[in-house]
Amino acid sequence: MFFITTAIDYTNGAPHIGHAYEKVLADVIARYRRLRGEEVYFLTGVDQHGQKVQQTAEKEGIHPATFAKKKTKLFLNLWKKLGVHYDGWAETTDDRHKACVQAILSDLKERGELYKKGYKGHYSVRQEQFLTDRDRNEAGEFGPEWGEVVEIEEENWYFRLSAHAEWLKNYVSSNPDFVIPGFRRNELLGALANPADLDLCISRPKERLRWGIEFPFDPDFVTYVWFDALINYISFAGYLAADNAGLPDFTSIWDAGRPVHVIGKDILVPAHGVYWPSMLHAIGFPDKRLPQILVHGWWNMKGEKMSKSLGNVVDPDELADKFGVDALRYYLVRDIVTGKDADFDLDRLVMLYNQELANELGNLCNRALNMTARYSGGIVATGAATNADDHELRASLKAVTAEYRVAMDAYDIAEGLKAINRHVTVCNAYAERNKPWELAKDAALKPRLDSVLAHLVESLAHCAVLISPVLPDPAARIAAQLRMDSLLDLKFDDLQWGLVPDGHETGKPKPVFPKIVTEEA
Ligand code: MSP
Fold first, then answer.
1. 25: Cβ–Cβ under 8 A, 6 or more apart, which residues?
2. In whole angstroms, how far apart are CA 25 and each of 33, 85, 297, 471, 498?
3. 380-400 as b/e, with b when 16 or more CB fall inside 10 Å?
4. How far from 65 is each of 56, 323, 367, 461, CA to CA, in Å?
């Protein structure tokens, strides 16, 4: 079992392109692992508690629950539109999640992991966290990244995170694959270098924040939003759940492989790299039950961070309507290297779709099926003798399939797509060179014509399967036009030469990737 999760998105605003990227990336990985023959459980969802939701709801004059529900709908609708297929949906206001968070709090208290103390100091409303002098900038001030900073004095509950710091340092140092890619791990080790003052304030007094999960043993307090949110990865996987809760069986999800959490680079330190492993350790998870963290980079706008205040946020819903889901899904994983940042560029979205899908793969589909229909009555004949050119094409497919696998296993979706595209280019050049339209003029050349057409159709079938994790709908359209209904039920290891049987009748081509025509064109 491969258990994959994403970060759960804040419901204080609408989904943006960064959210869409992360969900599509996880969806592609989940689909690819299924193609590899693995059983997969994909969990995603929304983070509905916290001060930001409370504040924004207050501004709108509605209850935070109503507000969070309204925003949650936007996420649900978008994932449906973008073909993000999850198995589990996490909403932190779900009673089953609340019960799990409360049980964990009680358990940690029993274990002596929690204590209550008074505190006076600075607090960032935007980041919902207490600040120390280490958070001041060179000028000795709290910079604009903290938003409104207020002075507060209050009692709170603390988690003895510092008691786990030594263990965590050792764990991170001796488990190089805890965080991928590797350079992010160095960031984490850097943050762990001086673990002063690590204890984590995990409560908020109700007079300041009502919108959260109540402390089971101290009802004047609610749970700090990050402590609540991180637990979604286990609560919705069935941890401590009743048999009839409608959640999966925890051990069959969590222990039958290594869970992978897909998150953005901004929430590795401290949330996923420091808090979460320490929390799991404190709850009693042994090292071998800790998840792996896959950290992706950010989509920026012309090198700048996307933010509401800069007015440069891209709305994925609008983009999907304007350019189509296929173009958007393709672009989101094609023009970024997993782990690194990239610039979101609409011209490149259109260019990559038009060039690599409409002109290349779309063209191969159209040609292979059109010429088979026109010159061979739609019948694929695989028995003809092959020549060196055919062997080269087969070798290309073999090499590309192996390269695709290496890239996809390493979560490098862009390289996986480039590998497919290399073979598509080889196929189109092969068609140009072998000119089936000329071969068709001479009956004596029929065996050669058959072989060329069969090689193109066979290649198309393989490419449809390989591209299916990224573009499931176009892959299904190609399978339908090939009249190979069960093509997409194949597993990766089934991808051997000979998927299209001798005498198979293909269907009529219809454009799979209609070209995007922009206003300037
Ligand atoms: N609610 C927390 C996560 C809790 S997980 C237990 C949160 N939410 S968020 O809505 O701010 O971000 C959700 C995810 O979207 C994060 O992984 C974040 O890194 C990612 N992205 C937000 N903006 C992004 C880009 N511009 N580009 C790529 N991903 C980005 O953090």
1. 262, 296, 332, 333, 338, 413
2. 12, 11, 11, 12, 31
3. bbbebebeeebeebeebbeeb
4. 11, 34, 54, 48
DSSP assignment of 257-316 equals: S--EEEEEGGGIIIIIIIIHHHHHHHHT--GGG--EEEEE--EEBTTBPP-TTTT----H
Closest CA to ligand 1's atom 29: 18
Residue 459 forms part of a structural domain: yes
Residue where the block lists tokens 């072989």: 451
In this prediction the pTM is 0.96
Count of domains for the chain: 1
Q: How far is the CA of 424 from the centre of ligand 1 (A)?
A: 35
What does the alpha-carbon distance between residue 241 and residue 96 come to, in Å, rounded to a whole number?
A: 7
Return the number of other C-beta atoms located less than 10 Å from residue 447's C-beta. 14
Write out the DSSP string of 401-460: HHHHHHHHHTT-HHHHHHHHHHHHHHHHHHHHHH-HHHHTT-GGGHHHHHHHHHHHHHHH
Domain limits at 440? 345-494
Angle at 301 between CA 297 and CA 302, to 5 degrees: 110
Q: Is residue 246 part of a domain?
A: no
Q: Which strand (E) or helix (H) includes residue 349?
A: helix 346-352
Q: Which residues line ligand 1 (CB under 6 A)?
A: 7-10, 18-19, 21-22, 47, 229-230, 232, 263-264, 266-267, 298-299, 306
pLDDT tens figures, 43-55: 999 999 988 899 9
Q: What pLDDT shows up at residue 128?
A: 79
Residue 328 lies in a domain: no
Nearest CA to ligand 1 atom 12: 9
Within a domain: residue 80? no
Confidence class for position 175, pLDDT limits 50, 70, 90: very high
**The CATH number of the domain where 467 resides is what?**
1.10.730.10
